[in-house]
C-alpha cells in the first residue's frame, strides 16, 4: 500500500531519509507518512467462573464466538473504548481492571491488539444484533462444544492462568499526567 499524496495539503510526496529509513514526506508542509497501523482492544470478563462471549455476525470470523472488542478511535482513551465496546455489543456494564495480554501482528497494516481483564458491574448479555448475534456468559465446559476462535481461547487462558496481575490502571499517578491512559505493573 503506497501513499502518493500528502494527506494534509495534497502535494505529491517525496522520499526523505529519516535516520536511514526512506519515508514518504511532504515537500510543502510537515506531513510524514510513518506507516499503516491499527489497534484493536478486547475484553476478558469473567463472572462466577464464566466468560463473556459474543458470536460474530459479520466477517471476519462470522459464526465464531469471541470475546467482545473492537478498534480504537482517534481521540478516545483505549480503556474507554473497551468499556464502550462491551456495552454496545452486549449491554453489559463493566470496568477495566488491568491490561493482561498483547498480540503484535506486523503486516501491510501493522496491527496491535491489547486485551483487558474487566470487572462485571451490571446487566445481562443481549447481542446488539448487528455486529454480534449471540452473547452470554459461558463456562469452560460449555465452550468445549462451541466454535470459539483460537485467539479468544488463548486470551481466556492468558487471563485465567495469569502469572501476574498484569498492568493495572494508574488512576493517581505520582506526577500530574493529564490526558494519558496510564497502566503500570
Ligand atoms: Zn503537505
From TrEMBL:
Superkingdom in the source lineage: Bacteria
Record key words, sorted: Hydrolase
Gene3D superfamilies linked: Nucleoside Triphosphate Pyrophosphohydrolase
SUPFAM superfamilies attached to this UniProt entry: Nudix
Domain Nudix hydrolase: 36-161
Protein name per its UniProtKB record: NUDIX domain-containing protein
Organism per entry: Paenibacillus chartarius
